[in-house]
Write a structure and sequence with these properties.
Elements lengths: L46 E8 L8 E4 L2 E4 L1 H16 L3 E8 L3 E8 L3 H9 L12 H18 L15 E4 L3 H13 L15
Antiparallel strand pairs: 1-5, 1-6, 2-3, 4-5
Helix pairs in contact: 1-3
């Protein structure tokens, strides 16, 4: 199933917003290390997926929300840049709306590939226990590894520290209404930061 062609108000679709604002887009906040993978579903198949990645211990490393927009830290700027680069590195990937928040990333990702790419993805594995090549799992694993390495190399993360939680949340976008609902959440996410379940509780 492919869900495309529906304009989303306020969404950048992976392009920097006009005027250089660092306002990006997001998706529902869900508890850490939760997975809702459909049993038997092939996550290399073409379609739209909603993903949420959360920082280790929910640390706010990527910036602050000011006037309903993210003002990114240096680490946040790297994470934004690397996410945008994903579609250039992985030809089968098309980025939908996304947002980087102080301690998590929400995004819609579309996987589009030819029959030859599907055959290659099904027959190729990163490791016996790892994600398939050109799958949603391999995309997330590669992105996490690249951003973690960059943050460590720049001294924003201790060599032994983790940038991201081990798991991530994903949801198969069922249809255009589902896509629109998620994209609207994305648009609203920065202004709802004070209500966000992923926002650390101050004690």
């Amino acid at each position: 199933m492919r869900v495309t062609g529906r304009p989303i108000v306020g969404a950048t679709g992976g392009r920097p917003p006009p005027g250089g604002d660092n306002v990006w887009l997001a998706a529902p906040t869900l508890s850490s290390r939760r997975s809702v993978r459909l049993k038997g579903f092939d996550y290399t198949s073409a379609g739209a997926y909603f993903v949420t990645l959360i920082t280790d211990q929910r640390r706010c490393l990527f910036g602050d929300i000011l006037q309903d927009r993210l003002v990114p830290s240096e680490a946040g700027a790297i994470v934004q840049r690397e996410w945008i680069a994903t579609s250039r590195i992985r030809k089968e990937i098309e980025l939908g709306p996304f947002v980087l928040m102080p301690n998590h990333l929400h995004a819609i990702v579309e996987i589009n590939r030819t029959d030859d790419q599907v055959e290659d993805a099904v027959s190729s594995w990163v490791s016996p226990a790892g994600p398939r090549k050109a799958s949603l799992g391999s995309l997330v694993a590669g992105f996490k590894a690249a951003t973690t390495k960059m943050c460590r190399n720049n001294g924003w993360l201790a060599p032994e520290a983790s940038l991201w939680q081990r798991n991530y949340f994903e949801h198969v976008v069922r249809n255009e209404d589902d896509y629109a609902s998620i994209a609207q959440y994305i648009t609203d996410n920065p202004r709802r930061w004070l209500e966000d379940n992923e926002r650390p509780t101050l004690t």
